[in-house]
Design goal:
This protein is mainly alpha-helical. The strands form four sheets. It has a two-stranded antiparallel sheet with strand order 1-4. α1 crosses α3. The protein is globular.
Amino acid sequence: MKKALTLMLLFCGSIFIHAQTKKNQLSTSLEKDSVKVVDSLKITKISDNLEGGAPFKQVLKDSIFYDLKEYGYASEIDSLWQEKLMHSDFYAEMQEIVQNAPYEEVTISYLPTDTLKSRLAKLDAKTPFKIEYNPSLESVINRYLKRNKKTMERMMTLSEYYFPMFEDHLAKYNIPLEIKYLAIVESALNPRAKSWVGATGLWQFMFATGKMHNLNVSSYVDDRMDPLRSTEAACQYLSTLYDMFGDWDLALASYNAGPGNVARAIRRSGGNKNYWEIRRYLPRETAGYVPAFFATMYIFEYAKEHGFQPEMPKVMHFQTDTVHIKQLITFDHISEITGIDVKLLEFLNPSYKLDIVPHIEGKTFALRLPIKEAGLFVANENSIYNFVSEEIAAREKPLPRYYEAEDKIRYRVRPGDVLGTISEKYGVRVSDIKKWNHLRSSRIRIGQHLTIYPKKPVTTQVSSTEESKASTRQKTYVVQQGDSLWSISQKFPGITVQNIQNWNDISGTNLKPGMKLTLSKG
């Protein structure tokens, strides 16, 4: 028996040396206990009395995938990289910075104003953006320096992976390379970031805008979370915006607020096309958007001068390649066979919502792996697919059915519902449901409507005709003292300032207590 095992291991190892004759070699079978090697080393089990019944899959890993035991990348990625860098929590704080950036007031300066003015002038000279000193810009920069230094260092580490890819696409579209900093403002370099209104991915595409740029969403895949696809779409969209305005500052503002809002701000300013001059006429969140972009650019460009020391891992940029998947496969399968950590697979392949790479006739799905493992995967893909097929067939519970998904659902709370059961049903966290619906506690009431962005496939989104009618019924809101369009939009998930303006034919932002506002399409 030991002799048979030795022969099998030697045979497996010969694949690396004689890959071109592998198909013919695979027809050889091992005698004794009828352990056969067929169909590209089909993964099965060796008889129980062979070395304690060790699975052939383990023998395969110890031979064909021997190098995986010395997988340098994984051993060099410590817990800090996996837990803190790959799952940054800076996204929510970045959104707060953008939304609450001051208009003009100056905070205590941690950077000499004269030094800042000099450095901003140098940035202005070498970029196509109009980078001028402004008190609110100074305030955001000082906030980064005082409160967000460690977080910005983490962004700098993540940028080692993402920025080369961004720059490649930006150069192709003749877009300023500094636009790469926009992804930090949009998502804090978190490809799975999702805003409370549903904007998703590194470049924060809404469902409809993503569709316009061929970013599709299904039960398994959200192309908006695909770094390559979303970056391509962002470049296309930014090019269109620049063609409209002929100015990169205004293109940035319109990326956030929409071209219509920027055009209206230009008209209200008397035709002025300088961002800083029309800023007061833009929506509140957009007024803080461009300063946040300029502040991020400044921090990165002058990182050494401010003593930033990113905790760089030994591997700063993964050398990766993609493999076209020919059969449904899960991240657990890939990790079990190759030894690559699931968290690394999620980092390299963030668009797969359920950690499953589907196989659909007429569609192409790719898996990104480190180059070495990508080669081994291709060389042994028949073996891998055979194993996966057998494992899936043996499951008691089938995998979720593939279906084309909408961006969000509107759930009506039923008797007996609690946030825990609802979150489990849709594969999301309780904290996510609370955030999307601005809930301060976990209390919910029967009949209450919740906005949910499901990660699990669901068969229905509305349980009755009554629910469907309720979702389209026109709603009104009576303006209270101290209300603003922004504060009202915050109270109603899925509704933006621009929505309220359009539905109520409002051109400005002035509101009077007692006004009735329509909060749905007529």
